[in-house]
Specification:
Distance between the termini: 100 Å
Helix content: 10-25%
Structural class: alpha+beta
Length: about 240
């Protein structure tokens, strides 16, 4: 491929990207969660426009193409009755508006039913510009990882690892200020399933830095130990006097 061809392909991709509307919000809602038969609805929510159609994907494969006749007051719904293990995975949607302009693909959101697998190990790297989510001892390969900032999803790895699975997935957070905390949640390839959510890492927190709870505990110990020594010594002295 010539450089000129590469230039025009890049230019076309940029033009297409510029024409896409903002990604829709997507929600997973459980119904009758206390019942043996669980129903789920996946909602692609209106953002700037009222959508005419939405395509819903599970694990990057299309499972439904629905018009706004399946809509709620807040978006287009994909309903799943009697949900089982086979419905687990990650779901996304993209939609079109009356002039046939389409949106970007939504975030991938988890549908979790069964017990969760071992949580990923999460680390802050490259001076706080990268968050890495990795399988402990490379036990699992991941198809997808989701990054949460202060409890809200801000990124996912998209379809990049759906076929070429990876034991470690990284996210750039260079534009995020210090003080925010991050967690990750991943979907494994073999066996297929969701992990537990990882522990938290805080951007800008130095390694070995003492947290407030730890400092308080140390202060209490620093007070209690001398008091215990004084009590023991006093008790020994009192016995000797007797």
């Amino acid at each position: 491929m010539t450089r000129l061809s590469e230039f025009f392909i890049s230019l076309c991709a940029a033009v297409v990207s510029a024409q896409l509307l903002k990604r829709p919000d997507i929600r997973v809602k459980f119904h009758n969660a206390a019942s043996a038969l669980i129903n789920v609805s996946i909602e692609c929510r209106w953002k700037e426009y009222r959508y005419t159609f939405c395509t819903f994907d599970r694990n990057e494969n299309t499972v439904a193409y629905l018009s706004n006749s399946y809509s709620s007051p807040s978006g287009i719904l994909y309903a799943i009755s009697n949900v089982t293990k086979k419905h687990e995975g990650f779901y996304s949607c993209e939609c079109s508006v009356p002039n046939r302009t389409i949106t970007e693909t939504s975030f991938r959101v988890p549908l979790i039913l069964s017990e969760k697998l071992e949580e990923p190990e999460i680390k802050m790297e490259e001076n706080g510009t990268i968050v890495a989510c990795a399988s402990k001892n490379n036990r699992y390969k991941y198809r997808l990882c989701i990054l949460y900032q202060n409890g809200q999803q801000i990124q996912d790895s998209g379809g990049k690892y759906n076929e070429n699975h990876a034991g470690r997935i990284v996210f750039s957070i260079s534009d995020v200020p210090n003080g925010n905390y991050f967690n990750c949640l991943c979907y494994t390839a073999e066996p297929s399933g969701w992990t537990k959510i990882s522990s938290s890492v805080i951007k800008g927190e130095k390694r070995g830095a003492l947290r407030v709870e730890t400092i308080i505990k140390l202060c209490i110990c620093a007070i209690e130990i001398p008091l215990m020594i004084i009590f023991v010594v006093d008790s020994i002295c009192s016995k000797r006097k007797k």
